[in-house]
């Protein structure tokens, strides 16, 4: 099964998740790299009132990441 997952989109909902986002994305990145899976994160920021959006914007330099913010 993993051999067929060459390009995947990983959708992650986020509401006030600024404190855990780095750890979450890093963990998924490590697993994908281990299995040779190319991926793109799509994180949906659903009206967060903390620094979630700022954190996501800073992570765009490190990961293939698209942000949808409402």
Description:
The termini are far apart. Strand 2, helix 2 and strand 3 form a beta-alpha-beta unit. The longest helix is centred in the middle third of the chain and has 14 residues. This protein is of the alpha/beta class and 70 residues long. The protein has a 3-stranded parallel β-sheet with strand order 1-2-3, covered by helices on one side. The radius of gyration is 12 Å and the shape is elongated.
From the alpha-carbon coordinates, what is the Rg to the nearest angstrom? 12 Å
In total, how many beta strands? Answer: 3
Strand order of the largest sheet: 1-2-3
Count of DSSP-assigned helices: 2
User: Could you describe the largest sheet, including whether it forms a barrel?
Assistant: 3 strands, parallel
Mean of the pLDDT scores? 93
Amino- and carboxy-terminal Cα gap: 34 Å
Structural class estimated from helices and strands? alpha/beta
Order of helices and strands: EHEHE
Low-confidence stretches: none
How helix-rich are the residues, as a percent range? 25-40%
Rough outline: elongated
Secondary-structure blueprint of this entry?
Blueprint: E1 7-14, H1 21-34, E2 38-45, H2 52-59, E3 65-69
Parallel strand pairs: 1-2, 2-3
Please sum up the structure shown:
The chain has two helices and three strands.
């Amino acid at each position: 099964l993993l051999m067929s997952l060459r390009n995947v989109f990983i959708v992650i909902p986020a509401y006030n998740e600024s404190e855990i986002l780095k750890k979450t994305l890093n963990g998924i990145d490590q697993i994908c790299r281990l299995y040779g899976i190319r991926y793109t994160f799509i994180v949906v920021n659903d009206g967060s009132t903390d620094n979630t959006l700022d954190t996501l914007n800073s992570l765009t330099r490190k990961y293939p990441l698209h942000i949808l913010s409402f």
